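Subject: VCBS repeat-containing protein structure
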Amino acid sequence: MRIMPLIIAAMAAGVCAGFVPEVTAAQVPEAAEYGSVTASSAVYAPNAAVDPPVGPKRNGSAKALSLDEIQRTAADVTGDGKPDMILLLGQKREAGSPYYEQLYVAVDDPPNKTYLLFRSDGGYTPQLALCDVTGDKVPEMLVSASTGGSGGTSNYYLYSAGGGKPVVLPTPKPLTITGSFQNGYKAKITVHETGKTYTIDLKDRKRIYEENGVYKKGKLVKPVDVSVNDYAELKPVDIDKDGVCELAGIQRITGVANADTIAYAHSVWKWSGSEWVLTSSQVVKAK
């Protein structure tokens, strides 16, 4: 659905539910920043117009963006006990393209007469998930967007609007993993965060590896180091049922080629108040 920008004056006049703030390219105030992600807030009064986020002008004028509404949901993400309207919006360079150049999360908080705006890099098939990951009893907002590459990875952005303040939180870094093929059609893979090494049986690939000169009668002909991708999946799951979500990640591990998926690394992360702590991890053979 194509959503044309509405001016902030319309919001101030009472058009709050389902608003789309008018923004300009690369012009969101960077009140909070983490990497390429920004967050900002503005206050609007019932009977007064508030200028939209603006910045450097091109050719003497600031060009307003036309944004697609990707997802819409209502939830209390500010912690005032009243539902807020959360919109996941995307900007495309070409209308028919599946790729979004920029992604925005807009939070309308009518009781406090504020709106919060988060901006991140784009991607394919963006999605928004809500869950309390910090333990403050207010859900955070996790945005995912596929990179579209052959690795099957996605980028993830985590936002908090608790107390009506826009905060960009880090996401857990992918596991650091190394490994290599061994004699006897197997691979040894080590997760450096835990120091644990896993042995992956590769006998089911014996014929292919023999035909391609990787093995000869079970003996490794040439060294093969495994490759590890970034997160293919990172999703909020309340694993221990305490009302606070952990983030569960999956990374793909490949052998002789990107298409040669030999295993998956699973990790579970819990927010400690200042950083993500790894609570469990394992490497499992790909089926």
